[in-house]
């Protein structure tokens, strides 16, 4: 019998502490149990991570309370947390914040219960008739229960029968309809009904892919292969490390090639085998459309689908989590954090749109959902499919190395053609001052309007004008807290910072020299909507971006209206770029393809290629072939040209050469350290100090850049400095970093963050 428990105290700095077990609980506690322990003068919630027979810590205290003996975390998830701390250079406690949702740790939100009434025995017509004469309301309630044939919530019963609680009470007293409290789930999709939608017959390409996926599922053991523990010294290699037992499958399938259908059928197979499945999708494509497709498919077999995303209330999140943990919901669909869903006996993990940057968490712990998925699949011994029309260079490289198995879908289903992509050289158009739409795009839109087909116009920039410049003194209206220009939002009559949210009334004259000739220039979606409205006065135009979609149901409503053809032209940001499927969209216009191309980021080309391909993929999904207009001032840049020819392999070959030459990922791991402070000199000084310390005894094969101001020099009132490291042995570097940082103290207001495998380089 163990005598001690090593626990991780919530909100602590992340060191584990030992406590003595009261004799009565020694037999019931397990790793993953939740307890309350004394910490100095108070008590705190904590998770048991290990049970011990002895401890060398003198004078250990007694655990004060068992909150939940039943482990809320499996040993495997605990191990995953430990691995993350080590790899991403953060404390275990910080890593556990991602693994265990806050609402579960706090243990404050409980299950919702409700009072239900049911019939004690069968009640005949005559009996109800007889009761009607004496007590008509009681009779009505009884009749309602008889009609329902199952327990009915008392709240519903009283409302439907116009009765009070005392009416129900009377039925209880008569022994006719006892009541009892029952636990219920808060269902975020309660108000919707899902029709049954059956399997589709897969085409030969789909069948070939499905055969490989089902082979992987069938060899999934559900039992993790033996491997060294994740504690220091024996850490498993990272996602790109050693050869996994069951190779991850990388599914490269063009947009509309029927990838989702394969996922759905693979999940069915997993369910038949009594296992569970997790499907990750990027937050922005977790649309009602996607959820609906899953719920309808599995409604037929009475399988419950749990949905996890950032817009759930705490109560909903609590209930979804428990539905998964108790095995009631065996299919989980969710954004990146769903990779920590407490599923037992996993058979399959799917990461849809695996190239998406939203899988990377941009706050501590800065994990990448796809990489964690690969690791979890290996620990679980289950199958994993990474799918995309534009695989990330990282994953495709792994496939080239043979670490992943590459599967391909080269055709759209039902022989639908890939859309025809035309590049518009905007250098020719710009002579007509302020032209946002090229002549040929205008003609194409008119053509679609005449044919009652739909158009999507894409621009990845919100607002009306993107800068305000005084033509007289040259003053540019910048955010007082950030080193970026303010964006003019015309509907709100305000200028807004897109970094920190700072707002002010739009100035009528230059704030510097008071000249009234201040010029609003640059184009955002609000201006596109305005101009399109004027160009096509008979068309119904709607805008879909974060500003237009602030109301809770706006997104769903607009998509619904678009689907049934009530909208002719949809203008939007990346919100409309992903995963949507509208058969009647035959034209897509990309207003400015250059926006993402000129960022100071080595992934700029990759992002542009991906974005163009994805946006173009929204088009021509019905019976009519689609057409895409890409407007650009650099029409010959390779990302644009390869996207135009649907040439992933061509793009890959040229891009991977560039990465190899400069030793960028996937050839190395990149670590970005950001040092920020409200005082510019303190930030700079701290960056230099850290640089000196790191440079001493750097692990071999590591390059360390000089400290430099970040491209986004100032943000939220903080001055920012960058230190960039590249290495071929990431875990070694992470440990070295952790060691150096532990010993250093920075001035009080200096904040240092470490981002391993960084994606956000501004
Ligand atoms: P992807 O995920 O690759 O973009 P989807 O799975 O969404 O592709 O498929 C695109 C469309 O084609 C969907 O409407 C889907 O229902 C349909 N589809 C998929 N597979 C088939 C098939 N074998 N036969 C007919 N229609 C299919
Ligand atoms: Zn700002």
Give an overview in words.
- This protein is an alpha/beta fold.
- Helices cover 32% and strands 22% of the residues.
- It is built from 22 helices and 31 strands.
- The strands form seven sheets. It has a seven-stranded parallel β-sheet with strand order 11-12-10-13-14-9-15, sandwiched between helices.
- Strand 1 (4-9) and strand 2 form a beta hairpin.
- The longest helix is centred in the last third of the chain and has 16 residues, at 680-695.
- It starts with a strand and ends in a 6-residue tail after the last strand.
- The model is unreliable at 225-244 (pLDDT under 50).
- The chain binds adenosine-5'-diphosphate and zinc ion.
- The site of zinc ion has 7 residues, from loops.
Ends: how far apart?
Answer: 54 Å
Number of strands: 31
Bound molecules: adenosine-5'-diphosphate, zinc ion
Overall pLDDT: 87
The structural class is alpha/beta
Number of helices, counting only DSSP H or I runs of 4 residues or more: 22
Rg from C-alpha positions? 29 Å
Largest beta-sheet characterization = 7 strands, parallel
Q: Can you give the helix content as a percent range?
A: 25-40%
Shape from CA axes? globular
Share of residues in strands:
15-25%
Describe the strand arrangement of the main beta sheet, using strand numbers.
Answer: 11-12-10-13-14-9-15
| Low-confidence blocks of residues | 225-244
């Amino acid at each position: 019998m163990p005598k001690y428990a090593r626990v991780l105290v919530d909100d602590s700095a992340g060191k584990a502490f030992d406590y003595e077990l009261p004799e009565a609980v020694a037999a019931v506690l397990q790793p993953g149990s939740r307890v309350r322990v004394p910490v100095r003068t108070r008590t705190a919630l904590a998770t048991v991570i290990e049970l011990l027979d002895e401890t060398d810590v003198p004078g250990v205290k007694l655990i004060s309370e068992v909150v939940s003996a039943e482990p809320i975390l499996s040993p495997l998830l605990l191990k995953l947390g430990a691995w993350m701390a080590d790899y991403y250079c953060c404390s275990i406690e910080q890593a556990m914040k991602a693994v265990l949702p806050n609402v579960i740790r706090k243990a404050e939100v409980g299950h919702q219960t409700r009072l239900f009434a049911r019939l004690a025995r069968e009640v005949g017509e005559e009996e109800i008739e007889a009761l009607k004469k004496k007590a008509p309301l009681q009779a009505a309630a009884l009749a309602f229960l008889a009609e329902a044939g199952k327990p009915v919530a008392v709240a519903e019963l009283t409302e439907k029968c116009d009765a009070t609680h005392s009416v129900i009470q009377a039925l209880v007293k008569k022994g006719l309809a006892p009541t009892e409290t029952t636990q219920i789930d808060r269902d975020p999709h309660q108000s919707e009904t899902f029709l049954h939608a059956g399997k589709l017959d897969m085409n030969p390409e789909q069948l070939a892919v499905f055969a490989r996926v089902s082979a992987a599922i069938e060899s999934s053991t559900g039992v993790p292969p033996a491997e060294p523990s994740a504690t220091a010294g024996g850490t498993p290699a990272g996602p790109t490390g050693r050869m996994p037992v069951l190779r991850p499958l990388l599914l490269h399938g063009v947009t509309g090639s029927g990838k989702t259908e394969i996922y759905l059928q693979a999940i069915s197979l997993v369910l038949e085998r009594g296992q569970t499945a997790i499907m990750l999708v990027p937050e922005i494509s977790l649309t009602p459309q996607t959820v609906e497709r899953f719920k309808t498919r599995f409604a037929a077999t009475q399988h419950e689908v749990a949905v996890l995303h950032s817009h759930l209330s705490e109560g909903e999140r609590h209930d979804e989590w428990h539905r998964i943990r108790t095995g009631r919901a065996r299919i989980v669909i969710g954004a990146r954090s769903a990779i920590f869903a407490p599923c037992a006996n996993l058979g399959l993990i799917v990461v849809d749109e695996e190239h998406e940057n939203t899988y990377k968490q941009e706050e501590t712990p800065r994990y990448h959902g796809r990489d964690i998925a690969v690791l979890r699949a290996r620990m679980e011994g289950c199958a994993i499919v990474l799918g995309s029309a534009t695989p990330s260079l990282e994953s495709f490289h792994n496939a080239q190395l043979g670490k992943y198995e590459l599967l391909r879908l080269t055709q759209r289903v039902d022989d639908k053609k890939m859309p025809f992509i035309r590049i518009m050289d905007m250098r020719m158009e710009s002579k007509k001052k302020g032209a946002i739409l090229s002549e040929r795009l205008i003609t194409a839109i008119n053509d679609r309007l005449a044919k009652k087909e739909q158009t999507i116009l894409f621009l990845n920039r919100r607002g009306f004008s993107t800068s305000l410049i005084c033509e007289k003194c040259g003053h540019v209206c910048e955010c007082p807290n950030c080193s970026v220009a303010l964006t003019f939002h015309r509907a709100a009559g305000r200028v807004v910072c897109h970094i920190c949210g700072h707002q002010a009334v739009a100035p009528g004259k230059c704030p510097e020299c008071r000249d009234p000739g201040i010029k609003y220039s640059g184009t955002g979606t609000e201006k596109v909507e305005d101009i399109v409205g004027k160009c096509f006065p008979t068309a119904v135009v709607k805008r879909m971006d974060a500003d237009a979609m602030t109301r809770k149901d706006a997104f769903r409503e607009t998509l619904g209206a678009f689907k049934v053809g009530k909208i002719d032209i949809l203008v939007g940001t990346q919100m409309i770029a992903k995963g949507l499927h509208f058969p009647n969209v035959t034209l897509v216009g990309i207003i400015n393809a250059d926006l993402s191309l000129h960022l100071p980021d080595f992934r700029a080309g990759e992002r542009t290629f991906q974005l163009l391909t994805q946006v173009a993929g929204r088009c021509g999904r019905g019976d009519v072939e689609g057409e895409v207009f890409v407007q650009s001032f650099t029409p010959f840049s390779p990302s644009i040209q390869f996207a135009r020819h649907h040439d992933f392999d061509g793009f890959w070959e040229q891009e991977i050469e560039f990465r190899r030459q400069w030793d960028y990922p996937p050839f190395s791991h990149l670590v970005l350290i950001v040092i920020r402070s409200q005082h510019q000199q303190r930030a700079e000084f701290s960056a230099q100090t850290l640089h000196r310390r790191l440079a001493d005894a750097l692990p071999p094969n590591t390059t360390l850049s000089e400290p430099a101001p970040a491209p986004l020099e100032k943000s939220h009132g903080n001055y920012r400095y960058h230190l960039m490291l590249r290495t071929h042995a990431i875990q070694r570097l992470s440990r070295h970093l952790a060691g150096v940082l532990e010993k250093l103290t920075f001035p009080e207001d200096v904040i240092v963050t470490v981002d391993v495998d960084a994606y956000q380089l501004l």
